[in-house]
């Protein structure tokens, strides 16, 4: 049977106003009685998603050893060693200079070894704690953007592609950063280098929030 087409009421990425509202909420978020890692996740994960196009779960399972300085670039490594990666392939993403200025590398440097935002269970399970954090991050985003027609977590991934195309970044480079499969056999030839990715990330406009 032919499936009915899903009704689409809006684009799947955050608008400029929505993105800035979530990032401002993250910047101003106060810990209260939250666990330190949950607080840190609400503070940093939205900003990291905004500037990397990574899935929320990929960022939420970052470990201290997955953040390093490579020459002039700060780089995060998204790897199946840390937890679920949809493509089951490692990829590296240079950090936007704004994240460096805001102090993300300093936050990492001051963190204990291991996971930055989750605490594995006693048996070493990561999936449960990761899903719990993803739910809390979705609730946090939904408290700012109430429109049910946009995902408070996945909208960052769509927005990154939109902003990148507006900035003139090539689709091949955007796909490499986001971990999307090339659309043609020809696009699998050659390597999108760290320098190419860094140039693309630097081309992304800064999020200016109050």
TrEMBL record:
<dbReference type="GO" id="GO:0006310">
    <property type="term" value="P:DNA recombination"/>
</dbReference>
<keyword id="KW-0233">DNA recombination</keyword>
<protein>
    <recommendedName>
        <fullName>Tyr recombinase domain-containing protein</fullName>
    </recommendedName>
</protein>
<dbReference type="GO" id="GO:0003677">
    <property type="term" value="F:DNA binding"/>
</dbReference>
<dbReference type="Pfam" id="PF00589">
    <property type="entry name" value="Phage_integrase"/>
</dbReference>
<dbReference type="InterPro" id="IPR013762">
    <property type="entry name" value="Integrase-like_cat_sf"/>
</dbReference>
<feature type="domain" description="Tyr recombinase">
    <location>
        <begin position="8"/>
        <end position="202"/>
    </location>
</feature>
<dbReference type="InterPro" id="IPR002104">
    <property type="entry name" value="Integrase_catalytic"/>
</dbReference>
<dbReference type="GO" id="GO:0015074">
    <property type="term" value="P:DNA integration"/>
</dbReference>
<dbReference type="InterPro" id="IPR011010">
    <property type="entry name" value="DNA_brk_join_enz"/>
</dbReference>
């Amino acid at each position: 049977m032919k499936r009915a087409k899903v009704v689409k009421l809006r684009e799947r990425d955050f608008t400029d106003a929505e993105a800035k509202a979530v990032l401002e909420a993250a910047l101003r978020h106060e810990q209260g009685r939250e666990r330190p890692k949950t607080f840190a996740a609400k503070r940093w994960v939205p900003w990291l998603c905004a500037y990397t196009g990574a899935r929320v779960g990929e960022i939420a399972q970052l470990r201290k050893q997955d953040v390093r300085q490579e020459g002039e670039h700060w780089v995060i490594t998204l790897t199946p060693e840390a937890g679920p990666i949809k493509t089951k392939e490692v990829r590296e993403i240079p950090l936007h200079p704004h994240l460096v200025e805001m102090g993300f590398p300093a936050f990492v440097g001051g963190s204990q070894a291991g996971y930055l935002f989750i605490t594995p269970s006693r048996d070493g399970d990561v999936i449960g704690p990761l899903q719990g954090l993803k739910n809390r991050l979705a609730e946090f985003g939904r408290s700012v953007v109430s429109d049910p027609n946009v995902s408070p977590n996945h909208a960052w991934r769509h927005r990154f592609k939109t902003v990148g195309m507006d900035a003139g970044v090539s689709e091949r480079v955007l796909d490499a950063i986001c971990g999307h499969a090339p659309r043609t056999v020809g696009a699998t030839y050659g390597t999108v280098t760290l320098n190419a990715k860094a140039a693309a990330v630097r081309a992304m406009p800064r999020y200016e929030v109050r």
